[in-house]
Protein backbone atom coordinates (compact mmCIF):
# COMPACT_ATOMS: atom_id res chain seq x y z
CA UNK A 1 0.00 0.00 0.00
CA UNK A 2 1.27 3.46 -0.85
CA UNK A 3 3.16 5.14 2.04
CA UNK A 4 3.10 2.02 4.17
CA UNK A 5 6.27 -0.02 4.54
CA UNK A 6 4.98 -2.98 6.52
CA UNK A 7 8.43 -4.43 7.26
CA UNK A 8 9.54 -1.13 8.75
CA UNK A 9 6.46 -0.96 10.97
CA UNK A 10 6.97 -4.53 12.23
CA UNK A 11 10.64 -3.70 12.93
CA UNK A 12 9.67 -0.55 14.85
CA UNK A 13 7.15 -2.53 16.89
CA UNK A 14 9.45 -5.43 17.68
CA UNK A 15 12.32 -3.05 18.52
CA UNK A 16 10.08 -1.45 21.16
CA UNK A 17 9.26 -4.55 23.15
CA UNK A 18 11.20 -4.14 26.38
CA UNK A 19 11.16 -0.46 27.16
CA UNK A 20 12.10 0.80 30.62
CA UNK A 21 9.72 2.89 32.73
CA UNK A 22 12.32 5.68 32.60
CA UNK A 23 12.23 5.73 28.84
CA UNK A 24 8.43 5.85 28.84
CA UNK A 25 8.60 8.70 31.33
CA UNK A 26 10.93 10.70 29.12
CA UNK A 27 8.72 10.17 26.03
CA UNK A 28 5.68 11.27 28.01
CA UNK A 29 7.55 14.33 29.30
CA UNK A 30 8.35 15.24 25.70
CA UNK A 31 4.74 14.83 24.65
CA UNK A 32 3.28 16.96 27.45
CA UNK A 33 5.51 19.78 26.28
CA UNK A 34 3.50 19.42 23.03
CA UNK A 35 6.45 18.23 20.94
CA UNK A 36 5.61 15.85 18.13
CA UNK A 37 6.68 12.26 18.80
CA UNK A 38 8.83 10.25 16.42
CA UNK A 39 7.36 7.02 15.10
CA UNK A 40 9.76 4.85 17.11
CA UNK A 41 8.71 6.72 20.25
CA UNK A 42 5.08 5.98 19.39
CA UNK A 43 6.06 2.32 18.95
CA UNK A 44 7.48 2.37 22.46
CA UNK A 45 4.28 3.85 23.88
CA UNK A 46 2.35 1.10 22.10
CA UNK A 47 4.28 -1.43 24.20
CA UNK A 48 3.21 0.14 27.51
CA UNK A 49 1.91 -2.47 29.97
CA UNK A 50 1.27 -2.42 33.69
CA UNK A 51 -0.85 -0.16 35.82
CA UNK A 52 1.77 2.47 36.66
CA UNK A 53 2.93 3.15 33.11
CA UNK A 54 -0.62 2.97 31.76
CA UNK A 55 -1.91 5.54 34.22
CA UNK A 56 1.07 7.80 33.42
CA UNK A 57 0.10 7.49 29.76
CA UNK A 58 -3.54 8.38 30.49
CA UNK A 59 -2.56 11.36 32.65
CA UNK A 60 -0.31 12.72 29.91
CA UNK A 61 -3.06 12.38 27.26
CA UNK A 62 -5.56 14.19 29.41
CA UNK A 63 -3.09 17.02 30.09
CA UNK A 64 -2.32 17.44 26.41
CA UNK A 65 -6.01 17.46 25.47
CA UNK A 66 -6.75 20.16 28.03
CA UNK A 67 -3.69 22.17 26.99
CA UNK A 68 -4.68 22.36 23.31
CA UNK A 69 -8.46 22.30 23.32
CA UNK A 70 -9.36 23.23 26.88
CA UNK A 71 -12.22 21.29 28.39
CA UNK A 72 -14.63 21.62 25.48
CA UNK A 73 -16.07 18.67 23.56
CA UNK A 74 -17.70 19.34 20.19
CA UNK A 75 -21.00 17.58 19.47
CA UNK A 76 -22.31 16.48 16.08
CA UNK A 77 -24.74 14.04 14.47
CA UNK A 78 -24.27 11.76 11.45
CA UNK A 79 -26.92 12.00 8.73
CA UNK A 80 -27.03 8.84 6.60
CA UNK A 81 -28.36 9.63 3.14
CA UNK A 82 -27.92 6.34 1.29
CA UNK A 83 -27.27 2.67 2.10
CA UNK A 84 -27.33 1.18 -1.40
CA UNK A 85 -23.77 -0.03 -1.90
CA UNK A 86 -21.70 -1.72 -4.60
CA UNK A 87 -18.93 -2.81 -2.25
CA UNK A 88 -18.48 -6.04 -0.29
CA UNK A 89 -16.84 -4.85 2.93
CA UNK A 90 -16.96 -7.98 5.09
CA UNK A 91 -17.89 -6.07 8.26
CA UNK A 92 -20.62 -3.71 7.04
CA UNK A 93 -24.38 -4.23 6.89
CA UNK A 94 -24.57 -2.05 3.76
CA UNK A 95 -22.49 -4.65 1.84
CA UNK A 96 -23.93 -5.23 -1.65
CA UNK A 97 -24.89 -8.88 -1.05
CA UNK A 98 -26.56 -8.35 2.34
CA UNK A 99 -30.23 -9.14 1.77
CA UNK A 100 -31.25 -8.61 5.40
CA UNK A 101 -31.50 -4.81 5.43
CA UNK A 102 -33.88 -2.37 3.78
CA UNK A 103 -32.17 -0.20 1.16
CA UNK A 104 -32.92 3.46 0.79
CA UNK A 105 -31.49 6.51 -0.92
CA UNK A 106 -33.04 9.66 0.54
CA UNK A 107 -34.37 12.36 -1.75
CA UNK A 108 -33.76 16.03 -0.99
CA UNK A 109 -37.09 16.46 0.75
CA UNK A 110 -36.32 13.54 3.04
CA UNK A 111 -32.83 14.90 3.73
CA UNK A 112 -34.31 18.26 4.62
CA UNK A 113 -36.73 16.56 7.00
CA UNK A 114 -33.83 14.68 8.67
CA UNK A 115 -31.90 17.93 9.05
CA UNK A 116 -34.94 19.56 10.67
CA UNK A 117 -35.23 16.70 13.18
CA UNK A 118 -31.58 17.25 14.11
CA UNK A 119 -32.11 21.01 14.37
CA UNK A 120 -35.08 20.42 16.69
CA UNK A 121 -32.81 18.41 18.98
CA UNK A 122 -30.35 21.31 19.06
CA UNK A 123 -27.67 20.01 16.69
CA UNK A 124 -25.58 22.50 14.68
CA UNK A 125 -23.02 20.20 13.07
CA UNK A 126 -23.82 17.34 10.73
CA UNK A 127 -21.71 14.59 9.22
CA UNK A 128 -23.26 13.35 5.97
CA UNK A 129 -22.60 9.61 5.55
CA UNK A 130 -23.15 7.65 2.37
CA UNK A 131 -22.57 4.23 0.87
CA UNK A 132 -20.99 3.89 -2.58
CA UNK A 133 -23.66 2.95 -5.11
CA UNK A 134 -21.15 2.33 -7.94
CA UNK A 135 -21.16 3.49 -11.54
CA UNK A 136 -20.82 7.25 -12.00
CA UNK A 137 -19.57 9.02 -8.87
CA UNK A 138 -22.30 10.56 -6.77
CA UNK A 139 -20.75 14.03 -6.31
CA UNK A 140 -23.81 15.92 -7.62
CA UNK A 141 -26.10 14.09 -5.19
CA UNK A 142 -23.72 14.93 -2.32
CA UNK A 143 -23.64 18.57 -3.40
CA UNK A 144 -27.45 18.75 -3.47
CA UNK A 145 -27.59 17.06 -0.06
CA UNK A 146 -25.06 19.47 1.47
CA UNK A 147 -26.99 22.47 0.12
CA UNK A 148 -30.29 21.03 1.36
CA UNK A 149 -28.87 20.58 4.86
CA UNK A 150 -27.43 24.10 4.97
CA UNK A 151 -30.76 25.54 3.90
CA UNK A 152 -32.91 23.57 6.39
CA UNK A 153 -34.42 25.77 9.12
CA UNK A 154 -36.08 25.23 12.48
CA UNK A 155 -37.12 28.55 14.05
CA UNK A 156 -33.97 30.63 14.00
CA UNK A 157 -31.68 27.61 13.77
CA UNK A 158 -29.66 26.21 10.93
CA UNK A 159 -26.83 23.72 10.50
CA UNK A 160 -23.57 25.63 10.61
CA UNK A 161 -21.12 23.01 9.45
CA UNK A 162 -21.64 20.02 7.18
CA UNK A 163 -18.86 17.44 6.97
CA UNK A 164 -19.01 14.34 4.80
CA UNK A 165 -17.88 10.73 4.95
CA UNK A 166 -18.29 9.26 1.48
CA UNK A 167 -16.43 7.11 -1.03
CA UNK A 168 -13.34 8.51 -2.79
CA UNK A 169 -14.05 10.97 -5.61
CA UNK A 170 -12.10 12.42 -8.53
CA UNK A 171 -10.44 15.83 -8.09
CA UNK A 172 -13.41 17.33 -9.96
CA UNK A 173 -15.84 15.62 -7.63
CA UNK A 174 -13.97 16.90 -4.58
CA UNK A 175 -13.98 20.42 -6.07
CA UNK A 176 -17.76 20.24 -6.24
CA UNK A 177 -17.89 19.36 -2.53
CA UNK A 178 -15.55 22.21 -1.70
CA UNK A 179 -17.69 24.67 -3.70
CA UNK A 180 -20.80 23.43 -1.89
CA UNK A 181 -19.22 24.50 1.41
CA UNK A 182 -18.11 21.19 2.83
CA UNK A 183 -16.23 21.34 6.13
CA UNK A 184 -14.19 18.16 6.58
CA UNK A 185 -13.89 15.34 4.06
CA UNK A 186 -13.60 12.16 6.07
CA UNK A 187 -12.29 8.85 4.74
CA UNK A 188 -11.06 5.91 6.78
CA UNK A 189 -8.46 3.61 5.28
CA UNK A 190 -10.13 0.86 7.40
CA UNK A 191 -6.91 -1.19 7.57
CA UNK A 192 -3.37 -0.30 6.51
CA UNK A 193 -2.45 -4.00 6.30
CA UNK A 194 -2.42 -4.82 2.62
CA UNK A 195 -3.37 -8.50 2.76
CA UNK A 196 -6.17 -7.86 5.25
CA UNK A 197 -7.44 -4.98 3.11
CA UNK A 198 -7.69 -7.22 0.05
CA UNK A 199 -9.38 -10.02 2.01
CA UNK A 200 -12.02 -7.77 3.56
CA UNK A 201 -12.76 -5.72 0.43
CA UNK A 202 -12.85 -8.43 -2.23
CA UNK A 203 -14.96 -6.72 -4.90
CA UNK A 204 -16.29 -3.33 -5.94
CA UNK A 205 -14.59 0.07 -6.29
CA UNK A 206 -13.31 -0.05 -2.71
CA UNK A 207 -11.19 -3.14 -3.44
CA UNK A 208 -8.25 -0.94 -4.54
CA UNK A 209 -6.45 0.27 -1.38
CA UNK A 210 -4.25 2.74 -3.27
CA UNK A 211 -7.23 4.50 -4.83
CA UNK A 212 -8.49 4.99 -1.29
CA UNK A 213 -5.25 6.25 0.19
CA UNK A 214 -4.67 8.55 -2.79
CA UNK A 215 -8.15 10.05 -2.40
CA UNK A 216 -6.84 12.14 0.48
CA UNK A 217 -4.34 13.74 -1.91
CA UNK A 218 -7.04 14.37 -4.49
CA UNK A 219 -9.13 16.08 -1.83
CA UNK A 220 -6.16 18.29 -0.88
CA UNK A 221 -5.53 18.97 -4.57
CA UNK A 222 -9.15 20.07 -4.94
CA UNK A 223 -8.64 22.62 -2.18
CA UNK A 224 -10.37 20.79 0.69
CA UNK A 225 -8.09 21.66 3.59
CA UNK A 226 -9.76 19.81 6.44
CA UNK A 227 -9.36 16.09 6.00
CA UNK A 228 -10.37 13.35 8.44
CA UNK A 229 -8.61 9.98 8.50
CA UNK A 230 -9.04 6.82 10.54
CA UNK A 231 -8.65 3.11 11.04
CA UNK A 232 -11.54 0.73 11.67
CA UNK A 233 -10.14 -0.93 14.77
CA UNK A 234 -10.73 -4.68 14.96
CA UNK A 235 -9.74 -5.60 11.40
CA UNK A 236 -6.03 -6.14 12.12
CA UNK A 237 -3.52 -5.75 14.97
CA UNK A 238 -4.18 -2.40 16.64
CA UNK A 239 -0.49 -1.65 17.25
CA UNK A 240 0.33 -2.09 13.58
CA UNK A 241 -2.69 -0.02 12.54
CA UNK A 242 -1.90 2.85 14.91
CA UNK A 243 1.70 3.07 13.78
CA UNK A 244 0.66 2.79 10.13
CA UNK A 245 -1.95 5.54 10.57
CA UNK A 246 0.67 7.82 12.12
CA UNK A 247 3.09 6.92 9.31
CA UNK A 248 0.46 7.92 6.76
CA UNK A 249 -0.10 11.19 8.63
CA UNK A 250 3.63 11.93 8.74
CA UNK A 251 3.82 11.40 4.95
CA UNK A 252 0.88 13.77 4.38
CA UNK A 253 2.51 16.40 6.58
CA UNK A 254 5.75 16.08 4.69
CA UNK A 255 4.09 16.30 1.30
CA UNK A 256 1.43 18.95 1.93
CA UNK A 257 2.83 20.81 4.93
CA UNK A 258 -0.32 19.95 6.87
CA UNK A 259 -1.77 16.78 8.32
CA UNK A 260 -5.38 15.75 8.86
CA UNK A 261 -7.77 17.98 10.76
CA UNK A 262 -9.30 15.00 12.57
CA UNK A 263 -8.66 11.35 13.30
CA UNK A 264 -11.61 9.05 13.90
CA UNK A 265 -11.31 5.93 15.99
CA UNK A 266 -14.20 3.68 14.97
CA UNK A 267 -14.10 0.23 16.56
CA UNK A 268 -15.86 -2.65 14.86
CA UNK A 269 -19.45 -3.29 15.97
CA UNK A 270 -21.75 -6.20 15.16
CA UNK A 271 -23.69 -5.58 11.95
CA UNK A 272 -26.82 -7.29 10.72
CA UNK A 273 -26.18 -9.97 8.09
CA UNK A 274 -22.43 -10.30 8.74
CA UNK A 275 -20.55 -12.79 10.87
CA UNK A 276 -17.41 -10.72 10.83
CA UNK A 277 -17.67 -9.26 14.32
CA UNK A 278 -18.01 -12.67 16.02
CA UNK A 279 -15.18 -14.25 14.08
CA UNK A 280 -12.70 -11.35 14.27
CA UNK A 281 -9.28 -12.33 15.67
CA UNK A 282 -8.24 -8.77 16.20
CA UNK A 283 -10.87 -7.39 18.54
CA UNK A 284 -9.47 -4.51 20.56
CA UNK A 285 -10.15 -4.69 24.30
CA UNK A 286 -11.43 -1.64 26.17
CA UNK A 287 -8.06 -1.14 27.83
CA UNK A 288 -6.18 -1.40 24.53
CA UNK A 289 -8.65 1.02 22.98
CA UNK A 290 -8.12 3.57 25.73
CA UNK A 291 -4.36 3.23 25.30
CA UNK A 292 -4.46 3.75 21.57
CA UNK A 293 -6.65 6.84 21.89
CA UNK A 294 -4.25 8.26 24.49
CA UNK A 295 -1.26 7.49 22.25
CA UNK A 296 -2.84 9.17 19.21
CA UNK A 297 -3.56 12.20 21.39
CA UNK A 298 0.10 12.38 22.41
CA UNK A 299 1.52 11.63 18.99
CA UNK A 300 -0.44 14.32 17.12
CA UNK A 301 -1.50 16.84 19.76
CA UNK A 302 -3.06 19.31 17.31
CA UNK A 303 -5.42 16.94 15.56
CA UNK A 304 -9.00 16.53 16.74
CA UNK A 305 -10.03 13.01 17.78
CA UNK A 306 -13.57 11.93 16.95
CA UNK A 307 -15.51 9.24 18.75
CA UNK A 308 -18.89 7.95 17.63
CA UNK A 309 -21.82 6.26 19.35
CA UNK A 310 -20.26 2.93 18.37
CA UNK A 311 -18.81 3.05 21.89
CA UNK A 312 -20.78 2.33 25.08
CA UNK A 313 -21.71 5.17 27.45
CA UNK A 314 -19.11 3.95 29.96
CA UNK A 315 -16.28 3.90 27.41
CA UNK A 316 -17.26 7.24 25.95
CA UNK A 317 -17.30 8.81 29.39
CA UNK A 318 -13.77 7.53 30.08
CA UNK A 319 -12.45 8.48 26.65
CA UNK A 320 -13.38 12.17 27.02
CA UNK A 321 -10.52 12.50 29.45
CA UNK A 322 -8.02 10.76 27.21
CA UNK A 323 -8.05 13.18 24.34
CA UNK A 324 -11.29 12.85 22.46
CA UNK A 325 -12.35 16.31 21.27
CA UNK A 326 -15.48 15.57 19.21
CA UNK A 327 -18.32 13.13 19.76
CA UNK A 328 -21.53 12.24 17.99
CA UNK A 329 -24.72 12.14 20.01
CA UNK A 330 -28.20 10.67 19.59
CA UNK A 331 -27.09 9.05 16.31
CA UNK A 332 -28.96 6.85 13.85
CA UNK A 333 -27.14 4.88 11.15
CA UNK A 334 -30.07 4.18 8.84
CA UNK A 335 -31.06 6.62 6.08
CA UNK A 336 -34.21 8.30 7.37
CA UNK A 337 -33.54 6.97 10.88
CA UNK A 338 -34.18 10.24 12.69
CA UNK A 339 -37.77 10.38 11.59
CA UNK A 340 -38.47 6.84 12.72
CA UNK A 341 -39.08 6.51 16.45
CA UNK A 342 -37.32 3.40 17.77
CA UNK A 343 -34.84 3.23 14.88
CA UNK A 344 -32.02 3.18 17.43
CA UNK A 345 -32.71 -0.46 18.29
CA UNK A 346 -34.07 -1.47 14.92
CA UNK A 347 -31.02 -2.19 12.78
CA UNK A 348 -32.97 -4.18 10.22
CA UNK A 349 -34.66 -0.97 9.15
CA UNK A 350 -31.37 -0.27 7.34
CA UNK A 351 -28.80 0.62 10.02
CA UNK A 352 -25.10 0.19 9.30
CA UNK A 353 -24.16 -1.37 12.62
CA UNK A 354 -25.47 -1.72 16.15
CA UNK A 355 -25.06 1.42 18.19
CA UNK A 356 -23.94 1.16 21.78
CA UNK A 357 -24.83 4.62 23.05
CA UNK A 358 -28.44 5.66 22.54
CA UNK A 359 -28.52 8.62 24.92
CA UNK A 360 -30.26 11.79 23.77
CA UNK A 361 -28.40 14.99 22.98
CA UNK A 362 -29.85 16.52 26.16
CA UNK A 363 -28.44 13.58 28.19
CA UNK A 364 -25.02 13.98 26.58
CA UNK A 365 -24.97 17.69 27.29
CA UNK A 366 -25.93 16.99 30.90
CA UNK A 367 -23.22 14.38 31.28
CA UNK A 368 -20.53 16.65 29.86
CA UNK A 369 -21.62 19.49 32.14
CA UNK A 370 -21.47 17.19 35.16
CA UNK A 371 -17.94 16.22 34.15
CA UNK A 372 -17.04 19.93 33.87
CA UNK A 373 -16.46 19.58 30.14
CA UNK A 374 -18.03 22.27 27.95
CA UNK A 375 -20.43 20.84 25.36
CA UNK A 376 -19.71 22.85 22.22
CA UNK A 377 -21.65 23.32 18.99
CA UNK A 378 -19.01 25.59 17.54
CA UNK A 379 -18.42 25.76 13.79
CA UNK A 380 -16.32 28.91 13.82
CA UNK A 381 -12.94 27.79 12.51
CA UNK A 382 -14.23 26.67 9.17
CA UNK A 383 -16.37 29.77 8.74
CA UNK A 384 -13.46 32.03 9.72
CA UNK A 385 -11.28 30.18 7.20
CA UNK A 386 -9.15 28.75 9.98
CA UNK A 387 -8.64 25.50 8.10
CA UNK A 388 -5.59 23.48 7.07
CA UNK A 389 -2.33 25.33 7.68
CA UNK A 390 -4.10 28.42 9.08
CA UNK A 391 -5.68 26.26 11.79
CA UNK A 392 -2.40 24.51 12.60
CA UNK A 393 -0.49 27.79 12.87
CA UNK A 394 -2.97 28.90 15.52
CA UNK A 395 -3.20 25.56 17.29
CA UNK A 396 0.53 24.97 17.54
CA UNK A 397 1.41 27.97 19.71
CA UNK A 398 -1.66 27.11 21.84
CA UNK A 399 -3.73 30.05 20.53
CA UNK A 400 -6.81 28.11 19.54
CA UNK A 401 -7.85 27.24 23.09
CA UNK A 402 -9.08 30.77 23.94
CA UNK A 403 -11.24 30.92 20.81
CA UNK A 404 -12.53 27.38 21.44
CA UNK A 405 -13.54 28.26 24.99
CA UNK A 406 -15.37 31.46 23.98
CA UNK A 407 -17.19 29.81 21.09
CA UNK A 408 -18.00 26.73 23.16
CA UNK A 409 -19.55 28.82 25.95
CA UNK A 410 -21.56 30.96 23.53
CA UNK A 411 -22.92 27.94 21.64
CA UNK A 412 -23.66 26.17 24.93
CA UNK A 413 -25.67 29.18 26.09
CA UNK A 414 -27.60 29.10 22.81
CA UNK A 415 -28.36 25.41 23.32
CA UNK A 416 -29.43 25.93 26.93
CA UNK A 417 -31.70 28.87 26.06
CA UNK A 418 -33.30 27.17 23.06
CA UNK A 419 -33.35 23.42 23.69
CA UNK A 420 -32.27 22.22 27.14
CA UNK A 421 -34.80 20.43 29.32
CA UNK A 422 -34.95 19.56 33.01
CA UNK A 423 -32.14 20.67 35.27
CA UNK A 424 -29.64 20.78 32.38
CA UNK A 425 -30.33 24.46 31.88
CA UNK A 426 -29.47 25.56 35.42
CA UNK A 427 -26.46 23.22 35.57
CA UNK A 428 -25.24 24.63 32.26
CA UNK A 429 -25.61 28.26 33.31
CA UNK A 430 -23.63 27.48 36.46
CA UNK A 431 -20.84 25.93 34.37
CA UNK A 432 -20.75 28.92 32.02
CA UNK A 433 -20.44 31.18 35.04
CA UNK A 434 -17.68 29.11 36.59
CA UNK A 435 -15.64 28.75 33.39
CA UNK A 436 -16.07 32.42 32.40
CA UNK A 437 -14.56 33.52 35.70
CA UNK A 438 -11.47 31.42 35.10
CA UNK A 439 -10.77 32.84 31.62
CA UNK A 440 -8.01 35.39 30.97
CA UNK A 441 -9.30 39.01 31.09
CA UNK A 442 -8.93 39.44 27.34
CA UNK A 443 -11.16 36.42 26.62
CA UNK A 444 -13.71 37.55 29.22
CA UNK A 445 -13.99 40.91 27.46
CA UNK A 446 -14.98 39.16 24.25
CA UNK A 447 -17.21 36.58 25.88
CA UNK A 448 -19.46 38.66 28.15
CA UNK A 449 -21.03 40.84 25.40
CA UNK A 450 -21.64 37.71 23.32
CA UNK A 451 -23.42 35.99 26.19
CA UNK A 452 -25.57 39.07 26.71
CA UNK A 453 -26.45 39.08 23.04
CA UNK A 454 -27.51 35.44 23.23
CA UNK A 455 -29.82 36.37 26.15
CA UNK A 456 -31.39 39.02 23.90
CA UNK A 457 -32.11 36.38 21.25
CA UNK A 458 -29.16 37.12 18.97
CA UNK A 459 -27.58 33.95 17.60
CA UNK A 460 -24.47 32.73 15.84
CA UNK A 461 -21.82 35.06 17.26
CA UNK A 462 -18.30 33.65 17.20
CA UNK A 463 -14.64 34.56 17.20
N1 LIG B 1 -19.17 4.03 2.23
C1 LIG B 1 -18.10 4.90 2.49
C2 LIG B 1 -16.83 4.18 2.83
O1 LIG B 1 -16.89 2.99 3.09
O2 LIG B 1 -15.82 4.83 2.85
C3 LIG B 1 -18.33 5.86 3.63
C4 LIG B 1 -19.36 5.62 4.62
S1 LIG B 1 -19.18 4.17 5.64
C5 LIG B 1 -20.89 4.10 5.89
C6 LIG B 1 -18.42 4.86 7.07
C7 LIG B 1 -17.53 3.97 7.88
O3 LIG B 1 -18.29 3.08 8.66
C8 LIG B 1 -16.59 3.07 7.15
O4 LIG B 1 -15.48 3.77 6.65
C9 LIG B 1 -16.24 2.03 8.20
O5 LIG B 1 -15.04 2.38 8.86
C10 LIG B 1 -17.39 2.15 9.21
N2 LIG B 1 -18.04 0.86 9.45
C11 LIG B 1 -18.52 0.00 8.53
N3 LIG B 1 -19.00 -1.11 9.15
C12 LIG B 1 -18.82 -0.96 10.48
C13 LIG B 1 -19.09 -1.77 11.62
N4 LIG B 1 -19.63 -2.97 11.54
N5 LIG B 1 -18.75 -1.28 12.85
C14 LIG B 1 -18.19 -0.07 12.96
N6 LIG B 1 -17.91 0.74 11.91
C15 LIG B 1 -18.21 0.30 10.68
FE1 LIG C 1 -20.41 0.25 1.46
FE2 LIG C 1 -18.89 1.86 3.03
FE3 LIG C 1 -20.31 -0.18 4.08
FE4 LIG C 1 -18.22 -0.71 2.60
S1 LIG C 1 -18.21 0.41 4.58
S2 LIG C 1 -20.21 -1.74 2.43
S3 LIG C 1 -18.31 0.92 1.10
S4 LIG C 1 -21.10 1.62 3.09
Helix content, binned percent = 40-55%
Number of domains: 2
Uncertain residue segments: 344-348
Structural class: alpha/beta
Bound molecule types: S-adenosylmethionine, iron/sulfur cluster
The major pleated sheet works out as:
8 strands, parallel, barrel
At the fourth CATH level, what is the homologous superfamily of the largest domain? Aldolase class I
What is the CATH T-level topology of the largest domain?
TIM Barrel
Spatial sequence of strands, sheet with the most strands: 1-2-3-4-5-6-7-8
Q: How far is the first residue's CA from the last residue's CA?
A: 41 Å
Shape-level CATH architecture of the largest domain: Alpha-Beta Barrel
Question: How many beta-strand elements?
Answer: 9
Oligomerization category of the chains in this entry:
single chain
Number of helices: 19
Mean pLDDT, nearest integer? 91
Report the sheet-strand fraction: 5-15%
Could you say which overall geometry the principal axes of the C-alpha atoms support? globular
What integer value in Å does the Rg equal? 21 Å
Name of the CATH class of the largest domain: Alpha Beta
Give a verbal description of the structure:
This protein has 463 residues and is α/β, with parallel strands linked by helices. The chain folds into two domains: 60 residues, no CATH class; 311 residues, TIM Barrel (Alpha-Beta Barrel), CATH 3.20.20.70. The protein has 19 helices and nine strands. The protein has an eight-stranded parallel beta barrel with strand order 1-2-3-4-5-6-7-8, surrounded by five helices. The longest helix is centred in the N-terminal third of the chain and has 19 residues. The chain binds S-adenosylmethionine and iron/sulfur cluster. The site of iron/sulfur cluster (SF4) has 9 residues, from loops.
Amino acid sequence: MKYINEEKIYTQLSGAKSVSTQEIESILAKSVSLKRLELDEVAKLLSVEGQKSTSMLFDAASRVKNEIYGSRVVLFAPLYINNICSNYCAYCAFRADNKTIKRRKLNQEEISEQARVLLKMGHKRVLVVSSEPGGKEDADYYVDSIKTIYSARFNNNYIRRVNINCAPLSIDGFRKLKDAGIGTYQLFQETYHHKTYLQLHPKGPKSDPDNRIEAIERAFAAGIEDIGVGVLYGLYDYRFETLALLTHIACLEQKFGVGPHTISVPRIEPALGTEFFDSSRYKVSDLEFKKLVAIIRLAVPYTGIILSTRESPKMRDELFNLGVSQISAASRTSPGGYAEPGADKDTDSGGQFVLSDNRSLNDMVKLLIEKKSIPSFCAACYRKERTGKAFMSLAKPGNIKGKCSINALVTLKEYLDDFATGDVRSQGYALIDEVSKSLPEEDKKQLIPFLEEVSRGIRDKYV
